[in-house]
Specification:
The complex is a heterodimer of chains A (112) and B (112). Chain A has 112 residues and is an all-beta fold. The model of chain A has no long low-confidence stretch (mean pLDDT 90). Chain B starts with a strand and ends with a strand. In chain B, strand 5 and strand 6 form a beta hairpin. The radius of gyration of chain B is 13 Å and the shape is globular. The model of chain B has no long low-confidence stretch (mean pLDDT 94). Chain B is built from no helices and 11 strands. The chains are: A mainly beta (112), B mainly beta (112). At the A-B interface, strand 4, strand 5, strand 9 and strand 10 of A face strand 4, strand 5, strand 9 and strand 10 of B.
């Protein structure tokens, strides 16, 4: 069964605006990771947030984690056309050989 | 470092044919994974390995076999390809079970 589910499925914004996407999951986790996938390419890791953390920043990215609501959000500030991609959350539960469970992703389009 | 590499990049098979996809990583990672990604969807885990000589089933293992004879290589085999196996296949590796996964560029497989 799918563990991480992203919302919305698709998001279209203008360059310079902020983009927020959400991830919900069902069971307890050790950490949650966000990945980006450009069309036709492999996934690139963006940020990892552990279950005992509430917020993390990396450049224009801000990730929050609410374990009581079993949800996470990814905020991209001051978006650029180059941010156009699909974004996936992956939840990791241990012990489970660290297998990540990926959602179906949010497709972000940033219009110049 | 090359990171994670996959060969081939693209392959067309006829139903019933067999093939092997090769994944190689030069980061000395213990954990390796094979995923498939169907259009508009996230990644689903096929098989994974927690170390040289070990393999285990993931979410969708039927129709696939794997081997991890060397730490740096993880092979995915299709013994008798079916059209339902048309997909993009991604290999990934990680150092620890909870940590970031590093993805290869993918292999696009078309089964006619």
């Amino acid at each position: 069964s799918q563990q991480g589910e992203e919302d919305p499925q698709a998001l279209s914004i203008q360059e310079g605006e902020n983009a927020t996407m959400n991830c919900s999951y069902k069971t307890s986790i050790n950490n949650l990771q966000w990945y980006r996938q450009n069309s036709g390419r492999g996934l690139v890791h963006l940020i990892l947030i552990r279950s005992n953390e509430r917020e993390k920043h990396s450049g224009r990215l801000r990730v929050t984690l609410d374990t009581s609501k079993k949800s996470s959000s990814l905020l991209i500030t001051a978006s650029r056309a180059a941010d156009t991609a699909s974004y996936f959350c992956a939840t990791v539960r241990v012990p489970n050989a660290g297998k990540s469970t990926f959602g179906d992703g949010t497709t972000l389009t940033v219009k110049p | 470092n090359a990171g994670v590499t996959q060969t081939p990049k693209f392959r067309v098979l006829k139903t019933g044919q067999s093939m092997t996809l090769l994944c190689a990583q030069d980061m000395n990672h213990e954990y390796m994974y094979w995923y498939r990604q169907d259009p508009g969807m996230g990644l689903r885990l096929i098989h994974y390995s927690v170390g040289e000589g070990t393999t285990a089933k993931g979410e969708v293992p039927d129709g696939y076999n794997v081997s991890r004879l060397k730490k740096q290589n993880f092979l995915l085999g299709l013994e008798s390809a079916a059209p339902s196996q048309t997909s993009v296949y991604f290999c990934a590796s990680s150092y620890l079970e909870k940590e970031t996964q590093y993805f290869g560029p993918g292999t696009r497989l078309l089964v006619l």
